[in-house]
Write a structure and sequence with these properties.
This is 4-aminobutyrate---pyruvate transaminase. InterPro entries: Aminotrans_3, Aminotrans_3_PPA_site, PyrdxlP-dep_Trfase, PyrdxlP-dep_Trfase_major, PyrdxlP-dep_Trfase_small. Belongs to the class-III pyridoxal-phosphate-dependent aminotransferase family. Helix 11 links the parallel strand 8 (254-258) and strand 9. The protein has helices at residues 8-15, 23-29, 55-58, 67-79, 92-104, 118-135, 156-161, 186-189, 196-214, 240-250, 272-275, 303-316, 329-344, 347-365, 395-407, 428-448; strands spanning 34-38, 41-44, 49-52, 111-115, 143-147, 178-181, 219-224, 254-258, 282-285, 297-301, 371-377, 380-385, 409-410, 412-414, 417-420. Strands 4-10-9-8-7-5-6 form a seven-stranded mixed sheet, with helices on both faces. Strands 1-2-3-13 form a four-stranded mixed sheet. The chain starts with 7 loop residues before the first helix and ends with a helix. Helix 4 (67-79) runs antiparallel to helix 13 (329-344) and helix 5 (92-104) runs parallel beside helix 13. It folds into two domains: 32-62 and 346-448, Alpha-Beta Complex (Aspartate Aminotransferase, domain 1); 70-344, Aspartate Aminotransferase, domain 2, CATH 3.40.640. By secondary structure, the chain is an alpha/beta fold.
């Protein structure tokens, strides 16, 4: 890409520090400037069109350019552009959205607390877990179990629960009260000759062994995504979540389900907790909550989790936590309208109905010589590429992802996988269009091998 002096690309390189890049490489090559969007498509500043095969960052459920969300934001900006939720104050959209979320929760929930990102929400839940243990007179019960390849954000506590080395290296993470158990991805970590059932049993044994080693009295909570997203779209093996919940109940350990990616229809149910029969104490949601039109996340908690925290705040005199933008009226107004659209247009049903088309398309692409296998559920999936051993880890996925972008589709490469998570409004025809682009890109890369 040639970069014209004083162009937006040149000014981006000069002034804008990007997340999730090699900063030196970015200084050399710059990035793609997306200028507009419509439905499942986005357009760069040259007018080139792309299918957004990752829904932005796993998040734009209702597609780009949804007028109802624009109108909801504009109306709220005119009425009350900002107010806080400190000191016994609130605003209408936050109350309305909290009520709606409680009504659609996959298990009975008691309260909703709003924040602005999944990282922020998971970080706060960790603080609340510790606060609750103190309230219960169990100051030693503070450790949190995450999973290798699990992703829960990049703030200090959430980044420590995350189990991805790149999010720890040189950041002095993880914190020492965070421990990690095995990654339950059968395609990646199953042993030769091991059945899926035997693999699940081994994963559960690893978890229980860790709990016993650390001391059950020291462990407060277990964090898990129903489907591991940023780890590479890793679906759980049969019996895994059922077994995890038995173990956590045995040792009185809280279950925090991170549905930042999975929530609001991605797996073909409103929540992936329904897909896998997970009954969490706390549910963390973001991304598709507002289709990322506004920064918004929420923590839903059951009464067992909430009541000790409320008691402790009464004892101390205050729950001394809060963010300026918690329950921001414009964000919650947009979130409220977004969830209404998901329900009214049956976008959850659309994901369920298109699951076969989507997964069959991935399976067909898995027949390509560059591809090892496919996986997924609902409208989230991945192709695992055959590694290019001599060129380093992830080289094949990076080359294919770049070729896919050149051909007119945006996806994400993670390790040896290329991952897909299109807007929930996508049609069967658009899925076929997306996979036709991917096939052209695979063929293009294959020609150079």
């Amino acid at each position: 890409m040639s970069i014209t002096p004083n162009s937006v690309e040149a000014r981006d390189i000069a002034y804008h520090m990007h997340p999730a890049v090699n900063l030196r490489k970015f200084e050399e090559k710059g990035g793609l400037v997306i200028e507009s969007g419509d439905g499942v498509y986005v357009y760069d500043n040259t007018g080139k069109r792309y299918i957004e095969g990752l829904a932005g960052l796993w998040s734009v459920a209702v597609g780009f350019g949804e007028k109802r969300l624009v109108e909801a934001a504009a109306a709220q900006l005119q009425k009350l552009p900002y107010y806080h939720s400190f000191n016994y104050k609130t605003n209408g959209p936050s109350v309305d959205l909290a009520e709606l979320l409680i009504s659609i929760a996959p298990v009975p929930m008691s309260k909703v607390h709003f924040t602005s990102s999944g990282s922020e929400a998971n970080d706060l839940v960790a603080k609340m877990v510790w606060y609750r243990s103190n309230a219960l007179g169990k100051p030693e019960k503070k450790k949190i179990i995450g999973r290798i390849k699990g992703y829960h954000g990049v703030t200090i506590a959430a980044g420590s629960i995350t189990g991805i080395p790149a999010n720890h290296t040189s950041f002095d993470l993880p914190l020492d009260r965070m421990v990690h158990t095995s990654c339950p991805s059968f395609p990646h970590f199953g042993e030769d000759g091991e059945s899926e059932e035997a693999f699940t049993a081994r994963m559960l044994k690893d978890l229980e062994d860790l709990i016993v080693k650390e001391g059950p009295e020291t462990i407060a909570a277990f964090w898990g995504e129903p489907v591991m997203g940023a780890g590479g779209v890793l679906t759980p093996p049969k019996g895994y979540w059922e077994g995890v919940q038995v173990i956590l109940k045995k040792y009185d350990i809280l279950l925090v389900a991170d549905e930042v990616i999975c929530g609001f229809g991605r797996t073909g149910k409103m929540f992936a907790c329904e897909t896998y029969d997970i009954k969490p104490d706390v549910l963390v949601i973001s991304k598709q909550l507002s289709s990322s039109y506004m920064p918004l996340s929420a923590i839903m908690m059951n009464d067992n989790f909430y009541q000790p925290i409320a008691d402790e705040s009464d004892k101390i005199g205050v729950f001394a936590h809060g963010f300026t933008a918690s329950g921001h009226p414009v964000a919650t107004a947009v979130g409220l309208e977004n969830v209404k659209i998901i329900i009214e247009r049956d976008l959850v049903g659309n994901a369920a109905r298109l699951e076969k088309t989507f997964l069959d398309g991935l399976a067909k692409l898995a027949e390509h010589p560059l591809v090892d296998s496919s996986r997924g559920i609902g409208l989230i999936g991945a192709l695992e590429l055959t590694p290019w051993e001599q060129e380093g880890a992830g080289a094949a996925a990076l080359a294919v992802a770049e070729a896919i972008q050149e051909e007119g589709c945006i996806i994400r490469n993670i390790g040896e996988a290329i991952c897909f998570c299109p807007p929930l409004i996508i049609t069967a025809e658009q899925i076929e269009e997306m996979f036709a682009i991917v096939l052209r890109a695979l063929n293009k890369v294959a020609e150079t091998r």
